[in-house]
Amino acid sequence: MEDINVRSVRYPVVVDQKFEKIALKLGRTKRQVFIQMVDYFYKSKKDPVDLNDEVLKNTLLKNHQQYIGFIKTQENMLLVPIKTLIDRIGESQRQIIERFNTEVLQHNVDVLNNQHAQAVVFSEIGRLMDVISKSQKSKETLKTQFMSILESYIRSREAFTMMTSGREKDELIAMVKDQVRTL
Questions:
Q1: What's the domain of life for this entry (predicted)?
Q2: Cα–Cα distances in Å, from 48 out to 72, 109, 114, 159?
Q3: pLDDT in tens, 99-114
Q4: What is the largest CA-CA distance in the chain?
Q5: How far apart are CA 71 and CA 64, in angstroms?
């Protein structure tokens, strides 16, 4: 079997001490750490000289700018029209509420005024009905008075003789009619 570990790398003692510390810290052999470092730089395409990782910063900045561009596009396409529409709807709702309140309040004032006027009219009608009912006599009182007038007429009529003049008869009739009218 052939040994695949035929390559060697030469580096200073100071670098070897650092390399040893990294291997001990990670709990691996120096050979494993070296293989993993090569794989890492190969896959990530990072430059080991770039300690601040400028490639990563540039990539993040580029992605950030893409997100900002996307958000601005969405803002112009969706958010601004939606906000404008909502503002218009809000304004129209305020106008509707204002007009509704104006009309309803005016109607309420008119209804209250009409109710007050009707209350005044009804109280006047009630007063007039009281006056009318007081001025009218009850049915029984009228019957009693009419019976009294009728009895008086009958007695006076029976008191007449054949010799009673027509003028006295006419006076009696006129007097009875006046009494009935004054009931």
A1: Bacteria
A2: 36, 86, 94, 157
A3: 988 888 899 999 999 9
A4: 184
A5: 11
